[in-house]
Structures are given as C-alpha cells and as structure tokens.
Amino acid sequence: MNNKRASKTPSAPVHERRATQQRVNQRRVTKSRATEPRAAKSKVAKPRAARSRQSSMPLLLALVFLAMLIGAACWHMLPIAIVGLYLLLSLCTFIAYAFDKSAARKGRWRTKESTLHLMSILGGWPGALFAQQLLRHKSVKAAFRQLFWLTVVTNLALLGYGIQTGFMDRLI
Q: Is this model's pTM higher than 0.70 or not?
C-alpha cells in the first residue's frame, strides 16, 4: 500500500499524526484570517490605549509651544505680533490639511507636499500637528513625517536665533 497519505492512517506514528494535524490547523487559521474584514484587523493590531497615548504627545507639544510663545510675549521677550502670526499660520495650515484630506477622499486635485512643508517651516507646524492627529492626515507616510519634523526643528532654530539676536524685535 504505497499511499502518500499514509501519515493520516491510525497505524502511523503519533508524532507524524500530530504534525499533520498542526499543518491542517495552521491552514484553517490562515484562511479565516484572510476572510476577516480589514477594519477588524486594524483594531486588533492596535489597542485603543496605545493609539490615545501616541496621539496625545504631538498635541501636547503644540500646546506647550503655543503657551510658551504667549508667555514670551507677556514677558516682552517676543513681539505679540509673532504670536498672532504663529496662530494665523497654524490655522491656515490646519485648513490646508483639511482641504487636502477632503480632496484625497474625493479623488480631486491635491495640495503639494512641498506647500504643506513650506507652511510648516514658516510657522504653521502647530496647526499641522493638530491636523495630522485630529484629521489623521499625512500621519503615516514615513518620508513625509521625517521631512515635517525637520521643518519643525528648522522653524524652532530660526525662532530661537531671531530671539537671541534681537531680529524678532526689528522684524515687527
């Protein structure tokens, strides 16, 4: 009796029957995972607590920065117009992200990434952080995020340089 399925017969050794049963079970699990809806997979893969901790840090950073700007203006370290400029640019950047998200959903013309980065480097990065976290837009693409954080650091360095040299006082 030269049957290829000899391992499934009761006369086969126990370890061969177990190995065969494990392979069959593995196939069943793989098939059932393939038929699961995609949304169910993402909820299982990322617990709610991890998502909330992850999203609160950038929002906290933006709020602390804006609070420090307001404090610096109150202590006359920075012109109040700079605070207004940051708030205005942040609002404009948030709106640009919202329009881009809407365009992405509807398949319309999109805002260039370079435009979003330019708005961030000019001072709209707190609004961009809010948009990335609240609208969940441009928050996954690694290359975009790396360049975004470079714009944040560049903007902060320019702001610090402007405060240190007194350029901000002469600017406005």
A: no
The stretches of the chain forming alpha helices (DSSP H) are 14-34, 38-45, 48-74, 80-106, 113-119, 125-134, 142-165, 167-171
Calculate ∠ Cα 171-155-94, nearest 5°: 100
Which amino acid is present at 136? Answer: R
Question: Which among 99, 69, 68, 62 is positioned nearest to 85, based on CA atoms?
Answer: 69
Encoded tokens for 18: 């177990």
CA dihedral of residues 113, 116, 122, 125 (deg, nearest 10): -120
Reported confidence tier of residue 34, pLDDT bands at 50, 70, 90: low
Q: 35-89, pLDDT tens digit by residue?
A: 555 544 444 445 454 444 456 888 899 999 999 999 988 998 888 999 999 999 9
Counting beta carbons within 10 angstroms of the beta carbon of residue 97, is it exposed (0 to 12), middle (13 to 18) or buried (19 or more)? buried
In whole angstroms, give the CA distance from residue 69 to residue 79: 10
